[in-house]
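re the bet — no i am not wrong, look at it urself. input seq straight from the record:
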Amino acid sequence: MKYMIIVNLGKSNKIIKNPIIRPILRKIVSKKQIDLIALKEIRKRKIPFAIYCNTDYVKNLLEIAEKKRIIDKNISLITYNVIPPKFFVNSKTLTEKINLENIEIIYCFDFGKNGNEIDLLYNKLSNLNQKIVIEDQTAFPKKRDIKNIAYRNLIYSLDKNTVIPSHFANDAYINELKNIACSFKQKITYMDICAGQGSIGLSLINELKNIEMVNLVEINPKQIAQIKKTLKNNQLPKDKVQIFQSNVLDSFPKEIKIDLVSCNPPHVNRKAKSVEDKQGADEGWAFHKKFFKQIVNYMSDESIVTLIEYKGGSSKETFENMLGSKLLISKVIEIKNTPWYILCIKKRIN
């Protein structure tokens, strides 16, 4: 039965990018088996890519994949603290001033011992001003044994219930949010709803100077507990961060007006299979409908609301009829080389 599952999954290119399938797979097959399937799918893609060889696990994975002829010895590798696997001929170390002009995506398969190696890759690319997608969602551990992880120069406190911060798509989303925030002439009040571990909102307050207040809104008290630990463990302007536990905006103060909103909502119209699964499931689009109805009360004519959405679960047309008479979709931004897109919403001015 397990073999049949692996074979069937190997025929689908959704293995790499589907955030719903991945947690289910963890319980069925080993991480190495899943990663070998992912490598088969990577080989089929026509996007120029590299693989981040940052641990002995990845080195061994690549050696097995080459032996099984899943990949060939000419693929691009970026190594960190690991001697390149034998027979691979196109490898560069992360400490070099690497030229990756022809690379559009880098696949990561392991976090490493302390969870910081992928963020080192992000920092190197940022310093070189190279906008390359880091696909770190392949790098999930079967056992949650990482207590802290670096993400965009902040250290996030994790427990078994906390969502691991991901560079995949989120980097592009945060960078778009920074551009929008800088378009305001005044200092702004910002809301990050469905904040999770807080990585989107805390990245903005850490990287921008024109944010007057960050309001993190999250329904899960366990996530909020980890946000508070993260705030304590980093040099952040804590007086500029407010945290609210709220079902959508039921408990958010009615007197606060928001200039910019980010939202990483549940992405698929389906029933949640567990409490943890609610992050990905929005049965009947209940969260979205309620959010659109409530958020308009916190917006000015200049406010911008953004949501990052999953192409496999929705499109612009999915949400247009939910906005009512007071809101409209002003822009849709496709995140290149990912299955994600950003919805930008404004108040309709009559």
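see?? The longest strand covers residues 299-310. told u. also The first helix runs from residue 2 to 10. so pay up
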